[in-house]
Amino acid sequence: MLAVLVAIPAIAYLPHDPMVQTAVAIAALSVILGLASASSP
Amino acid sequence: MVAQIGPLVQVGDRFRIAVNHIAGGMAGGLTTGVLLGLVTVLLHAVLAWPREAIVVVLGVVLAGAFAADASLVRIRPLGLRRQTPRTWSCSFGEVAGAFAWGFDLGLALTTRLTTYAVVVLPVFAVLSGSFALTCLVFFVYGTTRAAVVVGVAAGSKPAALDLSRELSESQSTLFRLAAVASLVTAGTIFAVWL
């Protein structure tokens, strides 16, 4: 979870369309949200 | 969820159940992605907005999610209040039930929203105007949500019920990490567009 969190800012340096970079950032966030959802009973 | 799927993954036909649960998560995420992808394509055909608007809207939503997940502000829980029905393993059988649980979790919006930051996914989907990117985001969410349940349950030493209790106790820490992730994501999106 922490590894993904640290990796998110690096997405800003990817040479891509801003919309694609935004989607990758949201996808990385969704990984964290998926991990956090495991705590739900 | 771990308490429900855990015993199935830890004993019996564990491989098929684990694979079916993750496949269900993938299918559920993709289903929501396809449906919202069609919505965003249709909306873009009818309405027009500047691409940069996504920065402002996502920034506001992520800031709100950070404040709510970090318990800085109190917002009424969003979305449906239901969880995956525990009777599905009886109704469908263990393997098909595991798939159905994964599918339900992967849909993202049919069960209780675990963190406020989940709201950013449909908001991005609607604003992006991209069918493929919408599918990608929800596919990743559905897969992760299902895989983490299987991973945590299968790789744990204690019984799934005890593990579920442990996870519930660490819930506030995980939610704070999710809140920080919202803030970091907002900063990254600003850096990308500015």
Précis, in short:
The complex is a heterodimer of chains A (41) and B (194). Chain A is mainly α. In chain A, 61% of the residues lie in helices and 0% in strands.
Any overview of this molecule?
- The complex is a heterodimer of chains A (41) and B (194).
- Chain A contains 2 helices and no strands.
- Chain A is elongated.
- The two termini of chain A are 19 Å apart.
- Chain B is mostly helical.
Order of helices and strands of chain A: HH
Shape summary of chain A: elongated
Please provide the count of β strands of chain A: 0
Task: Compute the number of strand runs of chain B.
Answer: 0
Question: Percentage of helical residues of chain A?
Answer: 55-70%
What structural category do the secondary elements of chain A indicate? mainly alpha
Rg over alpha carbons of chain A? 12 Å
Q: How much of the residues of chain B is beta strand, in percent? A: under 5%
What is the average of the pLDDT values of chain B? Answer: 82
Low-confidence stretches of chain B: none
The share of residues in extended strands of chain A comes to under 5%
Biggest sheet descriptor of chain B: none
Q: What ranges of chain A have pLDDT less than 50 throughout 5 or more consecutive residues? A: none
Can you write the helix and strand succession of chain B as a string? HHHHHHHHH
Instruction: Name the helicity range of chain B.
Output: over 70%
Structural class of chain B: mainly alpha
Set out the fold topology.
The complex is a heterodimer of chains A (41) and B (194).
Chain A: H1 2-7, H2 18-36
Chain B: H1 2-10, H2 14-46, H3 53-69, H4 88-92, H5 94-106, H6 120-128, H7 131-154, H8 160-169, H9 171-193
Helix pairs in contact in B: 1-7, 1-8, 2-5, 2-6, 2-7, 3-6, 3-9, 5-7, 6-7
Features:
heterodimer, A: about 40 residues, mainly alpha, 2 helices, about 0% strand, B: mainly alpha
